[in-house]
């Protein structure tokens, strides 16, 4: 496939851009360090040498995300001396006396062998010899001093040792009872405490550091294996390997030799991976070369042709790269330069007259003068004057110069003149004129008719061209137009991001330019561009501006899960259609907050206690040295991650777990029974069943002097939930909001949740508690998420300006458009409403040839018959508007004459008396279809026109033809329906006409059979005397008569009402508003002495005789007048003045 013209593709083009996102990376969150472990061999399976390592660990609380997410090292080591992989762990029993009840005795030691993981193993693996099975001890007698057991060793004061200080541990014991007389005394206070060094290793920890995993690459071993399986040899998709570098790092120093770090904790350097498939670059084939011109080219410019190809798929994962050349250009070959051809006319031949025989028949004269013709030869020559084919000149020119023209050989009677002189020069004054002259020659100077200046002018005067022009603005200002962006020369494509949407631009207003006489001229005479230009500004939109994110605050909880907050605040509000602000906390200075869950290890800050002081007796009498008292100790809050173990703010430690600084104590007197400290409570089951009891015990250290029984040596209590028995469970937070990388406003992010261990009473505890109970841990602590980006409206560049809507004059407009490439998404900057810009075209004058009206028909020596009409052709200038009057200008401005000279002259006729004169054709009627019930089954309609004859004399009206009708097919016809219309009745008459559905009255189209009556008649006719037809269509009687009706409802006769002449009759009168004529005649004759009517209303006989005689006399008088007035017809006469006759034809075919 290869690129082709875009117009060949059907349908809308795909979007040229789309949204994408890059996954954000977050580092993982880790716990604090555990305590240092024992000194063990590097490899317990093969212990060698006397050097070992002590290690400490931390674990991942939340995994890293994204390609650049990073986790710190999880294991640190320090070298140590005398490592061991197995050790004896001994537990001591109660002291048994060797003799009697007190004094020297022994304890039974129970020893088990443990490996480096704390698991019990065979004793043969532990060092030889094993610890002894017995250990000497002493049971105080009744008067001896009693001392408690040693406490556990305290935690080490430092996590490592440096030059200035070492880590220390202490343990202590206290005096429980004083010695009596003769008894063994109490040890000194120094003997009540013991110290030992701990964590004596260096603070320079060692750990393995790794580089990021490299790309998945082909492994030669895997490739060989794949080849045997039948792979194609190219490692496209399959299994590969990833490698990374591993190096040993010493804290505060840097990279050291690899052998310094324990090999057992060395991270992997190679891991398998899935090879991504190679993607070669895919490009289309080159498009066809743009065509070279087939015709020859004018000038010597170099013509080039080009082709291009498009990248369909970019190369990826080591695939073949794209070619460098996507656009090629080359010069067109065999492009010839066009030769220039021109017409070369010869001189005109002498004027050739009409042959003499013909001229005699026409003019009756033998003089060789008058109108004739002259010819010339015209040839086509090239620019080097070589003869060429006529077709070559016709290709390059608009037409051929005339070969024949009319000429005149002056007759003796004609006026002869010299040639016109040149025009006089023009002055700078705009009102000046120029003139030229000619003179009469020969006998013409003495002829009277040649002296007539109107017919034969000797001077011609014209206005001089004026160099002063008047400009005035026309039309509205254009839109504000910004400067064009640059275009890529090879493709003509707009460079992305280069087109400005706002800023300073120009607006334009067209200039109408005219000369002093008000005639339009080219606008370049007034302004070089044809416009008035003015600077303008499109205001740029400003988005809502917020500050950068503040740094994250500290976790709201010192133990377990809390919240960290960061914020940003409003710096600048949006305006001019900028991107709006997010929802702001207006009460707090317009801030935007973001909160994420956080986790603090519950043992990160812990209380450290020193040993209890000796018991101080609460008695003012110093003689008493035993009894109840108090003892105290010092406490402090320390950061367990701090190697020096320095004290920190006590508020960082859990205030609910603050150890007591004082407690009550008792110092037994010499004669009292002494019991040991209570042991630990036995463990309750995980179910915390209240029916299950837990127990603690103590034993007798010294009996009393009296026979009184000592205090109890055991206690039990039920296992009550949340009091002395607790359950544990993992607590998961809700998923956080989508967290993005630093300062990223949108895109791919991660949602996280955190895991903590919670006691059944709601108190967060160390994760170890949940891990000891082997609770099931949730797997996924983070999931990817997407915050949709707000997308500003993306627009294409402006298209080129269109051609002007008018070729000249006022009202022309040009426009250009742009298109939405990517619509707005979310709260992005909206698309502008202005996608089309317009501006007025330069007002150029309109030049056109205008034909004048036909002159009157000029007859050659007669008053009627055939003649000639002429009209003028003028070059006129106007501005294209209806109201503007056109002005005449030089013919050269209109260019070549578009008509043949023959259209300036036509034959005409003046009808002689008795002729039939044919009118002009009427206008064509509207296009009409044949329709049935308003629906047409035709695609082609008809329209018609008519012309008729005006009869000049009534005698020959029969010889004139009737109306002439023409029809022609037409397109786009309409269906019409026709209805009869009628006016109101007046004297039993009304007007009836046919009307078309568009409101036009026509003379055809309605059905003749359905025509309403125009004259109303009674049926049967009203023949009775004094009766007439009423408006209701029945026969009634005149005024003064009453109707006598038959039984069938018809009028029988009219009876005179007595006294009706003087007063109104009492009977009902059915006469109409307007009496018929016979009623009026009766009223006239009624007062005469001669009564033409009988009393019963019948006409007398003598009236008929008088009427007949009068009619014969009238006929005689008309005939006599005609004979007297008739004149003989002359040979020629002036035709009577014709009265204009306007005929309109509506186009109906049934006229």
Automatic annotation (TrEMBL):
Organism: Colobus angolensis palliatus
Chain segments carrying region Disordered: 1128-1151
Name of the protein in its database record: Thrombospondin type-1 domain-containing protein 7B
Composition bias type Polar residues, residue spans: 1131-1140
Annotated membrane topology: Single-pass type I membrane protein
Record keywords, A-Z: Disulfide bond, Glycoprotein, Membrane, Repeat, Signal, Transmembrane, Transmembrane helix
SMART domains in alphabetical order: TSP1
Spans through the membrane: 1101-1125
């Amino acid at each position: 496939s290869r690129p082709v013209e875009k117009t060949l593709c059907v349908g809308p083009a795909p979007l040229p851009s789309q949204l994408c996102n890059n996954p954000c990376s977050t580092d993982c969150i880790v716990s604090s360090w555990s305590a240092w472990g024992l000194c063990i061999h590097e490899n317990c399976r093969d212990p060698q040498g006397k050097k070992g390592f002590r290690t400490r660990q931390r674990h991942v609380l939340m995994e890293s995300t994204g390609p650049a997410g990073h986790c710190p090292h999880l294991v640190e080591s320090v070298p140590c001396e005398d490592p061991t992989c197995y050790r004896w762990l001994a537990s001591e029993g109660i002291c048994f006396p060797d003799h009697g009840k007190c004094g020297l005795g022994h304890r039974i030691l129970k020893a088990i062998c443990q490996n480096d993981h704390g698991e019990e193993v065979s004793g043969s693996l532990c060092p030889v010899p094993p610890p002894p099975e017995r250990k000497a001890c002493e049971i105080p007698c009744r008067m001896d001093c009693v001392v408690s057991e040693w406490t556990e060793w305290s935690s080490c004061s430092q996590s490592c040792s440096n030059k200035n200080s070492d880590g220390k541990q202490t343990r202590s014991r206290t005096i429980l009872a004083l010695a009596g007389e003769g008894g063994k005394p109490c040890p000194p206070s120094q003997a009540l405490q013991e110290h030992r060094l701990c964590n004596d290793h260096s603070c320079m920890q060692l750990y393995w550091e790794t580089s990021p995993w490299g790309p998945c690459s082909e492994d030669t071993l895997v490739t060989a294996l794949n080849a045997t399986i039948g792979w194609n040899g190219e490692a496209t998709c399959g299994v590969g390997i990833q490698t990374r570098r591993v190096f040993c790092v010493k804290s505060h120093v840097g990279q050291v030799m690899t052998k310094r770090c324990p090999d057992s904790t060395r991270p992997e350097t190679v891991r398998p991976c899935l090879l991504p498939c190679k993607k070669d670059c895919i490009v289309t084939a080159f498009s066809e070369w743009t065509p070279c011109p087939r015709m020859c080219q004018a000038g010597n410019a170099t013509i080039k042709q080009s082709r291009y190809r498009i990248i369909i798929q970019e190369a990826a994962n080591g695939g073949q790269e794209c070619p460098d050349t996507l656009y090629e250009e080359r010069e067109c070959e065999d492009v010839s330069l066009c030769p220039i051809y021109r017409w070369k006319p010869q001189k005109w031949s002498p004027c050739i007259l009409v042959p003499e025989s013909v001229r005699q028949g026409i003019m009756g004269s033998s003089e060789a003068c008058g109108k004739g013709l002259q010819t010339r030869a015209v040839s086509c020559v090239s620019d080097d004057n070589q003869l060429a084919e006529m077709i070559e000149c016709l290709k390059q020119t608009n037409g051929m110069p005339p070969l024949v023209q009319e000429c005149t050989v002056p007759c003796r009677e004609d006026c002869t003149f010299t040639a016109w002189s040149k025009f006089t020069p023009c002055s700078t004054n705009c009102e000046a004129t120029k003139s030229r002259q000619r003179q009469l020659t020969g006998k013409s100077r003495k002829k009277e008719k040649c002296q007539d200046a109107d017919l034969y002018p000797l001077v011609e005067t014209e206005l001089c061209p004026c160099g002063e022009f008047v400009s005035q603005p026309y039309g509205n200002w254009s839109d504000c137009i910004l400067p064009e962006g640059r275009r890529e020369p090879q493709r003509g494509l707009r460079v992305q991001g280069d087109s400005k949407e706002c800023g300073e631009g120009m607006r334009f207003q067209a200039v109408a330019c005219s000369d002093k006489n008000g005639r339009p001229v080219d606008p370049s005479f007034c302004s070089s561009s044809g416009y008035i230009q003015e600077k303008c500004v499109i205001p740029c939109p400003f988005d809502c501006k917020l500050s950068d994110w503040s740094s994250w605050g500290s976790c709201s909880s010192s133990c377990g899960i809390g919240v960290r907050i960061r914020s940003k605040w409003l710096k600048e509000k949006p305006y001019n259609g900028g991107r709006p602000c997010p929802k702001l906390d207006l009460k707090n200075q317009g801030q935007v907050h973001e909160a994420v869950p956080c986790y603090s290890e519950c043992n990160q800050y812990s209380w450290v206690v020193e040993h209890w002081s000796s018991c101080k007796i609460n008695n003012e009498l110093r003689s008493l040295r035993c009894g109840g008292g108090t003892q105290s100790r010092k406490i402090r809050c320390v950061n367990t991650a701090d190697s020096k173990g320095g004290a920190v703010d006590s508020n960082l430690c859990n205030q609910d777990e603050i150890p007591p600084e004082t407690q009550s104590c008792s110092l037994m007197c010499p004669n009292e029974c002494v019991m040991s400290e209570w042991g630990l409570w036995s463990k309750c089951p995980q179910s915390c069943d209240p029916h299950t009891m837990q127990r603690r015990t103590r034993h007798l250290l010294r009996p009393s002097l009296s026979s009184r029984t000592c205090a109890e040596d055991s206690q039990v209590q039920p296992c009550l939930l949340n009091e002395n028995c607790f359950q544990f469970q993992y607590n998961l937070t809700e998923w956080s909001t989508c967290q993005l990388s630093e300062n990223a406003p949108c895109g791919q992010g991660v949602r996280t949740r955190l895991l903590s261990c919670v006691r059944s009473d709601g108190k967060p505890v160390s994760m170890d508690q949940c891990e000891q109970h082997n609770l099931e841990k949730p797997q996924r602590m983070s999931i990817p998420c997407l915050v949709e980006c707000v997308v500003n409206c993306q627009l294409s560049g402006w298209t080129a300006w269109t051609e002007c809507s008018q070729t000249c004059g006022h009202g022309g407009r040009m426009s250009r458009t742009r298109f939405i490439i990517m619509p707005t998404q979310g709260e992005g900057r909206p698309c502008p409403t202005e996608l089309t810009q317009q501006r007025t075209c330069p007002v150029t004058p309109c030049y056109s040839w205008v034909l004048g009206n036909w002159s009157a028909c000029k007859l050659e020596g007669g008053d009627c018959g055939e003649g000639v009409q002429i009209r003028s052709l003028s070059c006129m200038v106007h501005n294209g508007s209806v109201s503007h009057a056109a002005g005449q200008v030089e013919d050269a401005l209109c260019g070549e004459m578009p008509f043949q000279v023959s259209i300036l002259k036509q034959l005409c006729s003046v009808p002689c008396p008795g002729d039939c004169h044919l009118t002009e054709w009427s206008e064509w009627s509207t296009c009409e279809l044949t329709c049935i019930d308003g629906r047409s089954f035709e695609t082609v309609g008809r329209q018609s026109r008519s012309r008729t004859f005006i009869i000049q004399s009534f005698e020959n009206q029969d010889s004139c033809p009737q109306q002439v009708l023409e029809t022609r097919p037409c397109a786009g016809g309409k269906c019409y329906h026709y209805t009869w219309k009628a006016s109101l009745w007046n004297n039993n008459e009304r007007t009836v006409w046919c009307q078309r559905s568009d409101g036009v009255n026509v003379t055809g189209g309605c059905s003749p059979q359905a025509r309403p009556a125009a004259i109303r008649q009674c049926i049967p006719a009203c023949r009775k005397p004094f009766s007439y037809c009423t408006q209701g269509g029945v026969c009634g009687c005149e005024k003064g008569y009453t109707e006598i009706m038959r039984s069938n409802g018809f009028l029988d006769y009219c009876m005179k009402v007595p006294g009706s002449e003087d007063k109104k009759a009492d009977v009902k009168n059915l006469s109409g508003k307007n009496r018929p004529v016979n009623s009026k005649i009766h009223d006239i004759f009624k007062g005469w002495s001669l009564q033409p009517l009988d009393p019963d209303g019948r006409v007398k006989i003598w009236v008929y005789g008088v009427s007949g005689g009068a009619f014969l006399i009238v006929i005689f008088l008309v005939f006599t007048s005609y004979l007297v007035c008739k004149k003989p017809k002359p040979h020629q006469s002036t035709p009577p003045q014709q009265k204009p006759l306007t005929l309109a034809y509506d186009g109906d075919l049934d006229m």
